[in-house]
Amino acid sequence: MDLNDFEGLWRIDRRITNAVGPDAVFTGTARFTARDDGLLMEEEGEMRMDGAPPMRASRRYLWRAAATGIDVFFDDGRYFHHIAPDTRPADRHDCAPDLYRVSYDFSGWPVWSSVWRVTGPRKDYAMHSHFTRG
User: Fold this and answer.
1) CA 39 to CA 61: how far, in whole Å?
2) What residue segments make up the domains of the chain, in order of their start?
3) CA distances in angstroms from 7 to 19, 76, 94, listed in the order given
4) How far apart are CA 72 and CA 18, in angstroms?
């Protein structure tokens, strides 16, 4: 899997199952745009949470080619996590007191998914994201 394989527009369907709060569903897009320092990933869409009106949601990350895969950074430049060149890579991000664990599934490329499992004193949720071209 090469970094440039992600360039372009993707549809996101995301489900968040929350043990300590309301569940949520996000539908939207992820646009990967080439820059000199990698690909800018911009997520935009609508979040629907149980018991609340729908809201607009967005997030930005920078994906950069690394010697052994892809490094992902927050939009402020802080390191986030690594994606190894496997069909099912996994990594973690420690954000004390919380722990973020991710697994990706690229085995059905160009359809792919990620699962984040987040735990901490006030967090306990799983976020399943499904990406398709378009």
Assistant:
1) 8
2) 3-133
3) 34, 21, 28
4) 24
Multiple choice CATH, 3-133, 3.30.360.10, 2.40.128.20, 2.130.10.10, 3.40.640.10: 2.40.128.20
What's the pTM? 0.94
What pLDDT is stored for residue 50 in this prediction? 84
| pLDDT at 86 (0 to 100) | 84
Nearest one of 34, 40, 37, 16 to 26, comparing CA atoms: 16
User: Per residue in 64-108, pLDDT tens?
Assistant: 999 999 999 999 999 999 999 888 999 999 999 999 999 999 999
In whole angstroms, what is the distance from residue 17 CA to residue 15 CA? Answer: 6
| pLDDT single digits (tens) 112-133 | 999 999 999 989 999 999 999 9
Q: Are 106 and 114 in contact (CB under 8 A)?
A: no
d(CA 123, CA 18): 8
Structure-token pair, residue 87? 């069909």
Is residue 6 helix, strand or coil? helix
